[in-house]
C-alpha cells in the first residue's frame, strides 16, 4: 500500500511537499524512492531505516503533467517489494480563464420566485490527434460538467464548501477519452449551492447572505489539450454562451422546483429550444485557488420503500424504514402540466401525517415556545420545509435531486395517485469517506450501535463535518467530541486537514476561532469579536493533535502553530472570571437547567476553565512535538498556573469539584485534577448507578467518559449504560437507524444527529482493544488491550492506519479465551496488555513489566500472534 497525500487513486497535486506513506508485511531495512516524469527519473532518494512515511519537496513540479512515484522496499534476506503510484498536477490554480456567469443577479429580492438556473457551454474544434487533455474547473455554488454529452465523474453537490473569499477549491479531470477530433462541446450546469443561499433568517436572525461569500452562480475553467503537434488551452471567456436551465428554483435547504417540459429525457442540461446568449464576465470570490484534496460527495446506497400509505387519490406517503440523507429517485407517469409536490420529513405524527419540525431550516416556522414561532424574514416560506416541486411533461418523468439533499424517512407525494408511481427509492449521498475500521461481536445490539454511529456520521458529511440537516453547519464542539470515534471508523486525514483550513480561514480579526466554519454568524457564549465558545474553539488545537497522532504530518503542525498562539493571545485578554462564562459547557447534558439552556449546563464555569486549560495543555504538547523546548516550557508554566487556579476555585473540601455532577467528576478525572482518582471513580460510578446506569453527561462528558472507563478498567459502566432503557435504547425506540440530537424529549432536536456517537470509539479501543497511543506520531505507537466483558462471547475488530492494518480478534472456547492479533511491521512500538488474572499460553516475548493488575508484552514486529488466556488460580 502506497499513498500520496493520504490518497490512493485519482491523485491531483498542486504543490509540494508531497506526503508519502506505505506499508509492507516484513521488517523494512531500507528503501529507494524515485519520482518519474514521462518514465524518466527526475528525483531519487534512499535511506537505510524502517521509516514508512516521507515528505518530498526537493524537486519542482510542472503544471498539467503526469508523474509517478516508485518505491523499492527492502527487508532482511530476500524480502523486497516495489510499489508504484501515479499522480498528476493541475494548473496550480493559475487559471488563464475568467469567471463567467449568466445574466442573473443574486439578491434578496425575489429570491423565492421563479429564477431559472444557468447552463454554460462552449463548442470548439480539434484538428490534432489528442495525446492528453485535462480540465481544471470551479463551478459556484454547485456544478455538473458534461463533455460531448457525457457527465464527468458523477460527483454530487460539488464544489467543496468553504469561505470562498479565502480559499476556492478547484477540480481537475483527465478528459482525454471524452474528446475527439472534430467538433466538441463542453456544458456546465450550475446550481446555487452555498454561493447563492436564500435570504432566509435562520433561527429568526441569521441571513447567510450577510455573512458568507456569496454571488451569482458562475464558473471558471481551463481545458488543456496536448496534441501530437502542440498544446492549446480553451478557457472560460466572453466567447462562451449561456441559456436558462430547467431548475426554476434551487436551494440547499428548501429544495428544487424542476420543469420537465423544458428538457429532454433525464438530462436537465439538454434544454429544448434554448436561447443562447453571450456570458457575462464576473469578478468571482477573492479566495486563493487550491486543488480539491478531499473525497468527493457520491451517491452511496439506495433504500427501497418499506411501506406506501395511500392518503387519498391525490396523495401518497412513502416510508423508507430508516432516515436517509440524500436524494429521492422517482419515476412516474404524468400528464402535461401536472404538478407534483414532494415534502420530506424525518418523523410522522400518530395519525401518519408528516412531522417536519426536526428538519425545518433554522427552525423557521417552528413554535419553539408557546406562542413563539420563528419567522424566516420577508417573502420566506411560513415553514422552511424540505420540498421539491415537479412540473411534469406528458409521459414518463424521472427525477433525481441534483442541487440539494434532504434528510428524510418519509416523503409525501401530492399530485399523483399510486397507479402513476412507477418507481421510487431513496439514495444516500455523502462525502465518500473510506472506512478504516470494522467491529463485530456476539451482541447484535452493540453491532447495531456501531452501524448506527457510522450511518449517522455519514449522513452529516457533505464536504464539511456538519451537525444535522436543519443547520448543515460544521460546529467545532461536535467535531471535538467525535474526533476519537471518527478516526477509528473513517480515514479522516484529508477531511480533517480541510476542516482545519476552514477554521483558519474564518479566524476572527481578534484571533479567536469561530463556533462554526465556514462562519455563518453563530457565536453563542463566545469569547468576543464573533469568536466561539471555549469548548468549540478547542477544534483547532485538538484536531491538530489528533491529525498528527494518527496521520503524522509534522509540516501541518508547523503551519498551524502560529494561529494557535494567536488564538491563545486572544483568550488571555480575558480574565478567568470572564472566561468561565464563555462557553456552552457540556452541551446536551440531561442535568441541564432547561429554563436557560445556553448557560444551564452542569458545572458550567468549571468546565469552561477546563477547556481553557486544555487549550494550553495541547499547545505545550505540540511545541514539545517539534522540539521547541523554550516555548513548551513557557506555556507549561501557564498550564501549571491555570491548574492551580482551577483547584483553588472549584475543588470542594471533600475532593469533588464544582456541583458534584457526573460532568464535574468526568472532567476532574479526565484532566487528572482529582487528588484521589480511584475515589473519584467510585463516586462517579455511584452517581451513575443511582441514575439507573444512565450517563447524563453531554457530548464532551460522554466522549471523555469512554476514554476514562477504558483507561481505568471501568468498562462495565459503559456496557450497562449502552443497554440502559433511558439511554440509546430509548432514543432509538427499537426502530431508528440514526441517532437523535437529544436523549429524552427531542422536541427541538434533529432525528439525524451524530453528536452522541462517540461511544463507537470505546467499541474499537475497549472491546476491540486497538488504540493509537497519545504519544504516537502517524500511528507508530500502538496499544493492544482488549476488554473481555463476561456477556460477550467474541469480538472481531480491525483498524487500518497509515502504517498498515491492525486486527484484534478474540473468542471464548471451552478452554479460555483465544486471542489472535495481527499488527503491521515497522511500528515504533506495540504493547500488548493482559490482566494478571489470566495465564498466557502460547508464544509471546517475555513480559516487559508487571504492575498490580496487568502484565505487558512488547510485540513490536511480531506480525501475527495466537495465544490462549486461561483464568489464573491466584
From TrEMBL:
Its EC number is 3.2.1.40. InterPro entries: 6-hairpin_glycosidase_sf, 6hp_glycosidase-like_sf, Alpha_rhamnosid, Bac_rhamnosid6H, Bac_rhamnosid_C, Bac_rhamnosid_N, Rhamnosid_concanavalin. This is alpha-L-rhamnosidase. Residues 129-298 form the Bacterial alpha-L-rhamnosidase N-terminal domain. GO terms for molecular function: alpha-L-rhamnosidase activity. GO terms for biological process: carbohydrate metabolic process. Residues 436-766 form the Alpha-L-rhamnosidase six-hairpin glycosidase domain. It is an enzyme of class 3 (hydrolase). Residues 312-429 form the Alpha-L-rhamnosidase concanavalin-like domain. It holds the Pfam family Bac_rhamnosid.
